[in-house]
Amino acid sequence: MSPLSHGDLRELTGSLERFRHPLNHRVIYTPGVQYLAERAGAYWLLDVIASYIGTSQMNAAIEADPRLGEMQFWHLDVRSDATATVLCRADSGEPEAIRQDIPFTDFPLDHADIWAAFDGEHWTLYLPSEH
Known about the structure:
By secondary structure, the protein is α+β, with helices and mostly antiparallel strands. It is built from 4 helices and 7 strands.
């Protein structure tokens, strides 16, 4: 199997199939997110995102910026020392609403973006190319 690349992720353009997160049943995700998690060995990234949805910390962030109640932009930034940061924002250029530092990761890319949209019942995680 070839190494994961950003180009691989851009090729994923969406499907109606969904997977349910095993710990937070309000979170579902697309085949593109499934592909990213599987190929990168990064189901932990989905767990990070799902662990904030519905929490008092996220509810406070939504109260401060109601846009977060409809759409969230999650970004993983991996540094050369194998540490990383996961950020959630209401939009690009906006201040971070959620930040979690990751002390070690072997994530194969320097960054990844996962968007989350709320349909009134579920939060759907998807790749930007699946929008």
